[in-house]
């Protein structure tokens, strides 16, 4: 394989390239990497055995020829070894560059032969501690109060909305106590799915507190009625007799209910509309 006339190394590399396309595991990739390391070592040994014009490469001979190209006479150099400043002429590397330029189509990049210039280590910057401990303490003290205010405000808003919906339900029963109110007609807002979910949420508090109840009519459809207008002789359901269930409603079901029940207007008006009507009445 190390012989210059043998192509076994090239054939092995080509076969490895074909097998690499089928690699799908980490272990197989590791074996491929080990093979590349081995192949590169064999290629290095094979390159060292190459001969140029039946003459092996000799680093010492090459160095002698390079110095001769630079214009250095080895005999004179040996006699003047004691002189300071080295033995290379000032234009020695310039001659090498001009000769090398003949064999390169682009200018070589500039770099330092002995590394970059020596620089001093960077000066460490002093850290300046910012005085924010007091402000953080004040923020931590204020956060619980703010959260409490937000919770209280949310509870008050929910309570007011439940009372408002109860007032709407009682008003509908006062106007027409004989006509049952469909649960879907009451809570569905055809213009807003979010408002529909909020209405169902607030109505659940009325059912929980016994201020309203839901039952099925003759067609097995849910109807809602206020317990304030319960007829005399009807069953009085106490807190223990009430049952609560979890009801889900998707946006597709919401659209289907609107089409089936032909709901065109919401019975429960949005809160901001009610506020505007009260202001106009005042």
CATH class of the largest domain, please?
Mainly Alpha
Helix-strand pattern: HHEEHHHHEHHEEHH
Class from secondary-structure proportions: mainly alpha
Question: Residue share in helices?
Answer: 40-55%
Shape-level CATH architecture of the largest domain:
Orthogonal Bundle
Tally of structural domains: 3
> What would CATH call the homologous superfamily of the largest domain?
Structural maintenance of chromosome 1. Chain E
- Contiguous helical run count: 10
Description:
This protein has helices at residues 8-20, 26-48, 59-69, 74-79, 92-101, 133-175, 183-187, 193-208, 251-260, 271-281; strands at residues 51-52, 55-56, 181-182, 212-216, 222-226. It is mainly alpha-helical and 282 residues long. Helix 1 packs antiparallel against helix 2 (26-48) and helix 6 packs across helix 8. The radius of gyration is 47 Å and the shape is elongated. Residues 180-268 form the Non-structural maintenance of chromosome element 4 C-terminal domain. Keywords: Chromosome, DNA damage, DNA recombination, DNA repair, Nucleus, Telomere. Belongs to the NSE4 family.
List keywords for this structure.
282 residues; two-stranded antiparallel ribbon; 10 helices; 52% helix; elongated; disordered C terminus
């Amino acid at each position: 394989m190390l012989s210059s006339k043998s192509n076994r190394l090239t054939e092995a590399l080509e076969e490895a390239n074909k097998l690499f396309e089928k690699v799908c595991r980490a272990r197989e990739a590791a074996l491929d990497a080990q093979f590349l390391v081995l192949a590169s070592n064999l290629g290095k040994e094979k390159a060292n055995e190459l001969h140029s014009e039946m003459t092996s490469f000799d680093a010492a001979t090459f160095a002698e020829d390079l110095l001769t190209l630079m214009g250095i006479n080895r005999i004179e150099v040996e006699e003047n070894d004691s002189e300071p400043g080295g033995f290379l002429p000032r234009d020695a590397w310039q001659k090498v560059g001009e000769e090398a330029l003949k064999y390169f189509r682009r200018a070589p990049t500039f770099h330092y032969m002995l590394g970059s210039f020596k620089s001093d280590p960077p000066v460490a910057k002093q850290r300046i501690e910012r005085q924010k401990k007091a402000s953080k303490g004040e923020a931590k003290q204020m956060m619980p109060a703010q959260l409490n205010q937000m919770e209280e405000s949310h509870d008050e808003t929910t309570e007011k909305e439940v009372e408002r919906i109860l007032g709407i339900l009682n008003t509908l029963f006062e106007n027409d106590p004989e006509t049952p109110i469909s649960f879907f007609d009451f809570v569905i807002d055809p213009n807003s799915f979010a408002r529909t979910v909020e209405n169902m949420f607030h109505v659940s508090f009325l059912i929980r507190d016994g201020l309203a109840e839901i039952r099925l009519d003759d067609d097995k459809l849910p109807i809602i009625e206020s317990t304030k207008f319960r007829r005399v002789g009807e069953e009085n359901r106490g807190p223990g007799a009430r049952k609560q269930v979890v009801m889900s409603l998707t946006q597709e079901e919401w659209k289907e209910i609107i089409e089936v029940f032909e709901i065109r207007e919401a019975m429960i008006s949005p809160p901001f509309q009610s506020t505007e009507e009260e202001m106009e009445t005042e």
